[in-house]
Amino acid sequence: MYGALFGKLGETNLVTLLMSLTIVAALELYAQLLERRLTRLLRGVSFPAHLFVVAIGILVSHFAGLESRHSVRVVGHVKSGMPSPEPPPFELLPKVASNGCIVAVVSYVVSYSLGMQRRNFSCLISEYIWLSLPFVATLMANRHKYKIRPSQELLANGYVM
Fold it and tell me: Phi-psi bin for 123: left (phi > 0), alpha (psi -120 to 50), beta?
């Protein structure tokens, strides 16, 4: 893995590499030093630092002429609006069907069955982590004392995916 990474280092555009490292460093500095203070200053509203960095990157790329002067590849023109929906090519179906079935079954099992184990693990894992995992339906059913229907959960997972 490292051989593939460092083997191509000679082919890397240094301006692109420098810009990428600068962006990663700026986002990490924001996360470590400024995020809590700025959120507190904005009264609980999170500052969209990632969006801000993207906007700054676009402006720097445009006004510094990174594409023409330093051969930095840019996306170019992006069409406005949403493309019309179209079905996927059916020749891909045999390639993805087995993996799709596996993902569907695992997702269903996680979203329905593992939530029943919540009370056994609650001393080990905080509420935040449990609410972040995909078995919220069972957690809410346990907390608010109502029953969920497994078939409804399966349909909901199908709609989401």
Answer: alpha
